[in-house]
Design a protein that fits this description.
By secondary structure, the chain is of the alpha+beta class. The protein has helices spanning about 1-20, 75, and strands spanning about 90-95, 100-105, 115-120, 130, 140-145, 150-155.
């Protein structure tokens, strides 16, 4: 608590100096505001109609509403194209640091494993190769930026991984 008292004294002194600086020099000690007190101080002549809310209004129109259920892709993105085709479902994907490959998780049709597996796509050719084992669940893949390495999480070493297939 002793430390707190040491900090309070300079703050109180600063607060007192701030109050003193508001008093007019050689005046009566009262401070008059420059301009009206109805929220129009500093406003242009055309906008000096008081609205009852001081400095809390704006003339900007609201941004366009983007509903999650509607198709707003053209509003948010340009020059898009689908990279993964022919899968039952695909999940997270990440580009390599050099921009030449994409690592992603996907569930392939005809597979007896109902879980995501990890694939690497060559973006120039569009060819994909599965890099995970094909057993268990996989997620969180990553391509090392300087070495020819990939990393991902997997349950393929779980002794019950095959039994957990649906």
């Amino acid at each position: 608590m002793e430390t707190m008292r040491d900090y309070r004294k300079p703050l109180l002194l600063l607060g007192a100096l701030a109050l003193v600086s508001l008093a007019p020099i050689g005046g009566t000690g009262s401070v008059e505001a420059a301009g009206p007190q109805d929220g129009t101080a500093g406003a242009s002549a055309a906008a000096q109609q008081p609205d009852g809310v001081a400095a809390a209004t704006t003339a900007a129109s609201p941004p366009p509403r983007i509903d999650s259920g509607s198709n707003n892709e053209a509003l948010l993105l340009r020059n898009t194209r689908r990279l993964v085709n022919g899968s039952l479902r695909s999940g997270e994907g990440y580009f390599s640091a050099d921009g030449q490959r994409l690592i992603y998780q996907s569930e392939a049709p005809g597979s007896d494993n109902p879980f995501y597996q990890i694939y690497v796509m060559d973006l120039a050719s569009g060819a994909s190769n599965m890099v995970s084992t094909g057993t268990g669940l996989t997620t969180c893949s990553w391509i090392h930026p300087t070495a020819d390495l990939i990393m991902y999480s997997s349950t393929h070493e779980d002794p019950d991984a095959l039994a957990k297939r649906a």
